[in-house]
Amino acid sequence: MSDFLLQHYLLRSAERCPDQTALRFEGRELSYGGLLRRSIQISDALIDTGMEPGETAAICLDKSPQAVCAMFGVLFTAGAYIPLDTSYSPVHRMLTILEQSGTRFLVTDGANLLKLLQGANPEQLERLRLLHILLVEGGAELDDADFGMIVQAAPEQPLRHLYKSRRQPISEDLAYILYTSGSTGVPKGVMITHLNARTFIDWCCGYFKPEGHERFAAIAPFHFDLSVFDIFVPVAVGATLVLLTAEVIQHPARFTKAIEQGGISWVYSVPSLWAAVVQYGRLPAGGLPSLRGVLFAGEVLQPKLLHQVMELLPEADFYNLYGLIETNVCTYYPLSEQDGIHGTPVPIGYPCGNTGVVVVTADGRLAGAGEEGELCVRGSIVMKGYYRNPLLTEQSFRSIPPNWGLGDKLYCTGDMAMVNENGALVLIGRKDALIKRSGFRIELPEIERVLHDMENILDAAVVDIQDGEGHPLICAAVVVHEAGSFTVLGLKQAVGKLLPRYMIPDMVHVFDSFPTGGSGKVDRQQLKHEFRKRL
Amino acid sequence: MQMQDKLYEIIASVCYFDKEELHPGLSVEDDLAITSVMIVEIIAMVESRLGVNLEEHVDELLSCETLGELTALTAELSSEHPQGSLPGR
Fold first, then answer.
1. Class of domain B2-80
2. Contact A216, A191 (CB under 8 A)
3. Domains in chain A, ordered, with CATH?
């Protein structure tokens, strides 16, 4: 039996329908034959530069067909790719991830490489110079004499299929590493194997039954876990992926026009995207007839918004999906009109195929119906662990008694949940300092560490509250050395230089000192109360 | 100037800035980190507080790069489209 790997989806579709459009981007199209050809060119070039099976390669490219080719190129090389966030993250964060990953290879283009070089400090510049860099586009603007190893993957190069003569990976090998906010101040890399990803992708193909003639919108940036569905499900069935830029996605009217003109059948996004469409998309009811499926994930879905979107798109089917990067999507819930009418939270539903999801109470029991507890997941959908961080990996899994009949380990999500009267899982909240905003995970201690490192800050605490509509707000409480030279704008600008935009605190308030509890610890509930008073 | 003052007040309240820190040269995206969702919220507040109808111009407002551009465009639209002036309003 041979292992079926992520790149085999592409090989299969390129063989079945080489002329079918695989990718569409800004009016240009790339066929399955073209996607395969370019991916193998990149793989040939990576093997030439010395990339060995099992190694990683970071990809620093904007959302584009080249980025998809680079991902498959790394997979063909028998390696794992690390997509960097070129849209929301400052250069400092990309360089931090490059450093944490210890990767020796970087796939990029001239413009992004220049951005990295210009944003790097002397120490980071030195590390960049040690990388093997593969340019898939551009490069005229660079002085390549500065680098130890920089090569171009030219589109006219003949294919050599070097990957065929090397050790083939197996399903248990890493396919990609997605970096997310880490509570220690350093982003953490979630290791996903071919088997982890395939468990999700194959379930999607079986459950949603997408077809080869359909078109999928690529909404999420490629470093975000929602993009795994966007990229691999269409490739698995030979359908077309339409890449939408951030500019289009952020403009409600342009977004709906792109869906209409692109004849898009499937959209997978955070619910807040649709909140803007409802309000400013200028969309008449039934205005997007090509849409067959609307999938929500990454945020709590509000019943009112669901009701509004259902009224706008009466022909579409709706689903609420749930999962963390560590678990892929592990539960699903087919939505009905009733879910948009009731004032109760929209459920996250039932476990996906080949996946076990249970609720464990605070005293370590399996929760009964209606009982609250931590949502825990098991099965081949769950990550291999955190990259180069065995301690954190160990801490995130819990051993369970043999008499539960659920194997020996569960991944603990940190999300609190319960099972409702219909047997569906319902999210209640978090047990730690992690929040989600626009689908992005944010560890509040990571922001706190950045604030502590600032010159004028004596002490800092970051908490979250909700605004009037239930959206999370990040609130930074600070004690400063010199109040005269402190500005809220200055603090936000400084944080924006080190962390992604979605991690910049919304509210900032200077305290003379923090309220403390009996143990002497900062009383965070009191801080939340102080911020709520300022809303 | 009056429009700028009112707009700064709205932006400061939606994005939790101190109004006094705002100035026209600030970048909407990089300095203020105003997201598209926030701009939509700002537009809704401008409509309700200043009586300006901006519904047809959301895309243009979302494209403003600096606070100065955002203020100038809002002022221009406010003179062109006071609320109730559009068909059907």
1. mainly alpha
2. no
3. 6-194 (3.40.50.12780), 244-430 (3.40.50.12780), 434-533 (3.30.300.30)
